[in-house]
Design brief:
- This protein is α+β, with helices and mostly antiparallel strands.
- It has five domains: about 5-90, DNA Primase, Chain A (Alpha-Beta Complex), CATH 3.90.580; about 105-250, DNA primase, catalytic core, N-terminal domain (DNA primase DNAg catalytic core, N-terminal domain, Alpha-Beta Complex); about 260-370, Dna Topoisomerase Vi A Subunit, Chain: A, domain 2; about 380-445, no CATH class; about 455-605.
- The chain is about 55% helix and about 10% strand.
- It has a five-stranded antiparallel beta sheet with strand order 1-2-3-4-5.
- Strand 12, helix 11 and strand 13 form a beta-alpha-beta unit.
- Helix 3 packs across helix 4, helix 13 (about 325-340) packs across helix 15 (about 375-385) and helix 21 (about 485-490) packs across helix 22.
- The longest helix has about 35 residues, at about 550-585.
- About 35% of the residues are buried.
Length: about 625
């Protein structure tokens, strides 16, 4: 996807953060700001603030801070582009991309048309379900008596009915002015070879119970259609108990989980997500109070869906049918879950029961009382089967469990699951350990090079500190962006720790100031390339440290930056000189290193360090 234009990002960032946050947080006045309970943690005393003068939020209980885009990313677990698009949609902001890469008007209008078509279809199907008509009454009877659901639930989820014979939906949509092209690509009709002649089209869903599928923003993007007694039998598709919408411009089934738009708040509160097999299973869970339940879109769980789970929680509880297909689905899921660092707990139903029947009879308390075990224990027990397996069979199962664990990136977690695999298979721990280590020597990727590993660790450690020298200068630049050009003239690039978030950000700010004038702090936002950098910037935007004697503060920070570089360089030179003295007789290079070390030591003690005269903040405002 191309980057958004500065105009679009500026418009989104200009949305009052109060308007973005208010639907999700109960806010009260706190001076010129607003405060409320954190939406990110379970707290009783408000520590979440909206800083209206900066249009930022700051959450003391979680440590998060940011603008409206970042707030939406965290609360709805969206990527940066998804959050921008969602805010544009909600606040009617046209989306434009930079470098002339504007969205194709036809593609964008088609996407909007498909969203509108699905919303009209949802209304039509639900109105038909609730109509005063014998066919509708029969379906409502099936919903209430046969399936044991309430009409209140049908209202809440807009459950619908696609009539067995009527073509009114097509006529209704045509009357709304939708083009044949948009209708043909909606997934509601089978056009055959006559895409431009709707009179010949075959209705994909006929005589079926309609369940809307929504995206993370709650917009209807597709449908699941359940077979009924009235489903016409004049087409082979009638045999399928469920039919799902085909993939379209707005619906990618491998990237959505049914009911996640509703479940995400309960997931945040409970710390887990409950995976069930089908949409009606998820509805049953919701009706019983298990509101963290979601379901895949008629397919086995995918990597994309598990990554979606990971956005909201580290724990996935699995409640699938107790038959062979359900057990094999768990085995397919486990390696992908381990790869995503998800903890999987498998809830075991009584033999021969499915989640819908069990929850209908026993409710949420019955689910709470069901036995559960880790994914590895479940897999070991299932693969071993009944009876008394031989040592060879146990060894084969153990290797299958090792194969699942190979996807897990954490050695600590792998080792923890190793002990569970040993217990599940009943193998001797010592011998199993030898097989375990041999397996991962043969199958694990090469370790990260020492230099790269050190760079990663250093970057992680420094990002966890509250502030550092680079961060101090970022904070100063945010107080007055005119200072960026002054600093760019005196800071040696070698002084900056480029592998830390602050170092990356400061380096990019100074590079930009070297080639072009940064007019205001908003200009710095456009330099961000990752959520890590946006979070880093946000920490300093909301940093309320005293700003008196700024010139002295900045000059002292510059001196510390130079001293730090010299100290680290001297340490490196000492190591190299020691190596050369032990391994080779290279007096010339040793003398060069000694001379550089002497100069650095003198500079650290005597300077002169860079000194800058900072411009008046008012001067930059007049630019």
């Amino acid at each position: 996807m191309p980057f958004f234009s500065e105009e679009t990002l500026q418009a989104v960032r200009s949305i009052p953060i109060y308007d973005i946050v208010r639907p999700m947080v109960d806010l009260s006045r706190s001076g010129k700001n607003w405060k409320g309970l954190s939406p990110f943690t379970n707290e009783k005393t408000p520590s979440f603030f909206l800083l209206t003068d900066r249009n930022y939020f700051k959450c003391h209980s979680s440590g998060l801070a940011g603008d409206g885009i970042r707030f939406l990313q965290e609360t709805e677990k969206l990527t940066f582009p998804e959050a921008v698009e969602a805010l544009c949609e909600r606040f009617n902001i046209p989306i434009q991309y930079k470098d002339g890469k504007s969205p194709d008007p036809e593609t964008r209008s088609l996407k909007q048309a498909l969203q509108d078509i699905h919303e009209y279809a949802r209304e039509y199907y639900h109105r038909t379900f609730m109509a005063d008509h014998p066919v509708s009454e029969e379906v409502r009877r099936y919903w209430v008596e046969d399936r044991g659901f309430t009409l209140a639930l049908a209202e809440e989820f807009s459950i619908g009915l696609s009539p067995p014979k009527s073509r009114r939906l097509l006529e209704f949509l045509q009357g709304k002015g939708f083009s044949p092209e948009a209708l043909a690509q909606s997934g509601l009709f089978n056009t055959g070879r006559n895409e431009r002649d709707p009179s010949t089209w075959f209705f994909l869903f006929r005589g079926r119970l309609m369940v809307p599928i929504r995206d993370l923003q709650g917009q209807v993007v597709a449908f699941t259609a359940r077979q009924l007694e009235m489903t016409p039998r004049d087409h082979a598709s009638w045999k399928a108990k469920y039919i799902n919408s085909p993939e379209t411009l707005i619906f990618k089934k491998s990237k959505l989980l049914f009911s996640l738009d509703r479940a995400k708040e309960a997931v945040r509160e409970s710390g887990r997500m409950l995976l069930v097999e089908g949409q009606l299973d998820a509805l049953r869970c919701w009706d019983a109070g298990l509101r963290e339940a979601v379901a895949p879109q008629g397919t086995s769980i995918t990597e994309e869906q598990l990554k979606l789970v990971k956005r909201y929680t580290d724990r996935l509880d699995v409640l699938l049918d107790s038959d062979e297909a359900g057990s094999k689905a768990v085995l397919r899921l486990l390696p992908m879950a381990f790869q995503s660092n998800l903890e999987v707990q498998v809830i075991t139903l009584p033999q021969g029961q499915d989640p819908d029947d069990f929850i209908r009879a026993a409710g949420s308390s019955g689910v709470a009382d069901l036995p559960r075990q880790s994914g590895i224990r479940f897999a070991g027990g299932y693969l071993l089967g009944e009876g008394n397996p031989s040592p060879e069979e146990r060894a084969r199962v153990l290797e299958q469990l090792f194969e699942m664990l190979a996807a897990c990136p954490s050695a600590v977690i792998r080792d923890g699951y190793f002990h569970e695999a040993v217990e599940a298979t009943g193998t001797p721990a010592g011998a199993a350990r030898e097989d375990f280590e041999r397996y991962f020597r043969q199958h694990s990727p090469r370790p990260v090079a020492r230099k790269e590993r050190a760079r990663y660790i250093n970057g992680t450690n420094s990002s966890e500190t509250l502030t550092n020298l680079e961060g101090d200068l970022i904070w100063a630049v945010l107080k007055n962006v005119g200072w960026a050009e002054v600093l760019a003239q005196v800071i040696d690039h070698q002084w900056i720790k480029i592998h830390t978030p602050e170092g990356k950000l400061l380096s990019r700010i100074l590079a930009q100031a070297t080639v072009d004038h940064i007019e205001d702090p908003d200009g710095i936002h456009f330099l961000m390339e990752s959520d890590e950098e946006r979070d880093c910037l946000s920490r300093y935007v909301v940093d309320d440290r005293p700003d008196s004697e700024m010139e002295a503060f900045v000059n002292e920070t510059l001196a510390s930056l130079a001293r730090r570089f010299c100290k680290e360089r001297v340490t490196y030179l000492n190591q190299e000189i020691a190596k050369l003295a032990q391994t080779r007789n290279d007096d010339t290079l040793i003398r060069q290193f000694m001379t550089e070390k002497k100069e650095l030591m003198a500079f650290m003690q005597e300077g002169p360090f860079p000194q800058v005269s900072l411009p008046d903040p008012a001067a930059s405002d007049d630019v």
